[in-house]
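Session log. Operator J.P. requested a structure for one protein chain; no other inputs attached. Running the standard single-chain path with token output.
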Amino acid sequence: MAERIPHPHISTTALVPLFRLDRASGLSLQDQIRRSLINAVESGVLPMGAKLPSSRKLADQLGVSRNTTLLSYQTLISDGHLISRERSGVFVATNAQRANARTMQVVSSRSGATVAQASTRLLQPDISRTQSKFPSDWQSYRYPFLEGKYDRSLFPLHEWREASRLALAVQEVETWSVDTGEADDPALIEEIRTKLLPRRGIVARPDELLITAGDQQALHLVTRLFASHQTVAGVEEPGMPEIRALFAGRNARMIHLPVDDEGLIVSEELEGCDIVHVTPSRQRPTAVTMSAARRTALLESAERNDFIIVEDDFECELNYLENPLPALRATDGGNRVVYVASLSKVLAPGVGLGFMVAAPEVIAAARRLRSLTTGRPSPNNQRAAAFFLSLGHYDTMLRRFNQVCEHRLIALRDALNHYRPMSIAIAPVRGGTTYWVRGSPHLQTQKLVEATQARGVLIEPADHYFAASDAPTNMFRLGITSLPVERIREGIAALSDAIHAVATEPASANSPTPYLTGELIKSRLSNTVLHYKTVYGEPCTIILKPDGEMSGRAGTAGEDVDVGRWWVEGDMWFRKWDRWAFGEVLGFRVAITGNDLSWLDESGRVMDSAVISLSDI
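Structure written below.
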């Protein structure tokens, strides 16, 4: 008779240090206990066949209810990690993953050299310039002006939980868990087709829609379908480094098409293209919106020169400052357009659902190609997204997100206009979550990044958005999704300080002396009109009256109006608006050369400038 080998017994005291229970965690105590036990089994701390203490003893030692430990044990038993023997207790299962881990270690030790040799054959795409290099601990910075990073308050946690719970109901699981091949969830297709696309002016049949794992997968499918070494692809410059990498992966020849404040410049360069990628709603990275005239010209060029347009509708749902223009896909000539979008940038990091709209033949080909890689996105996620849309949570989230973004973007604009660090300027935008900032020609963004980080400020350098090796070095981006509105102004004040700290302008360009003295300031500025541009490029006119009253009008239509007072103390000119510039008193030295007026701080640094003329009022 074989000798029976006793199972090792793990005392409760020895087991307790394995647990780190956090009652403030999002995980329940039951889940935390279960996770700790699994980690101990897989790491070998709890050997196979080891006997565990009773659920009552473990509960007493951990300070939790017996039901909590009992349910943890029962779940692990049903999952096969533990086994229960009648009248004997609970043991670590002998077929736990530790045995598999040992086998894998043996195989790895034997084949490591071969794998190392084989790695030299890897075809690695050049993605060195596709992403910004943010600090991994970006959340520890007080002023992270970063695009694509979201503070937790923006995610619709409770609403998504409800949608996920409904998607996991027994009846729903029986529906979406059935193997339907590569077919997407018909409920989600219908929600997108009838609710989201009409807002962009798009009418589509179900066979013209494909669900993807985010908009990036949709772009990958498009480049695989339409690009090869014989293809000439037009991309925006500056533009998305990811799309350049995708076309480069297909060995396509790229033409870099310049962008201005109206979006993509439609020119003769398009004539040789087979496919053109554009971001008309919110050009990435500049955030400008393509004008209606440019859209028409682009579609006409596509028809005339027989090329395909890939419309990447980046942040299409964030046109909150002006009414949005319809998608290219919805316009005459839109049959040449493959439309790509994500469900929402707020949901994207965790949910990762996008979609593409195109002719049925294109969608069918994309579906076949998708089946060779990731297959369809998770049916569970698709059904949860369908509930999220059908219950109105998506609309509620967008309204709230737009309100938050509008509040933050205007706060950022006003702070930039208030501090006006040197000759900084931002591109005009209709909404979105970023500003594209053009500094003075002498600004070196890499030096600025170091200076801002030392002040707790994170900005995004713009160099990786340019394909050209001689890209401008004075541009960067500021995002608003990663910090609350109350920190924006103080963050821009710190940014302004950093810009002045790294300034390299020649002294002669920054010191229009001599300064005017007190009485001369008053006589030269009384009854005058000052003309200048805001930091966001709109005209502004200020009228200074002899009695100290002043009025201002800003905007292309003069729609932003304010009044205030101006006066002279010593050799300084002071002004205070009712609303503008946060309603605060500011004082400057004044220098006038011809019709050019400069405002300077006490150190002689130019803070702003204007053109002066006599008032006829």
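Operator note: The chain has four domains: 12-97, 167-394, 397-505, 509-614.
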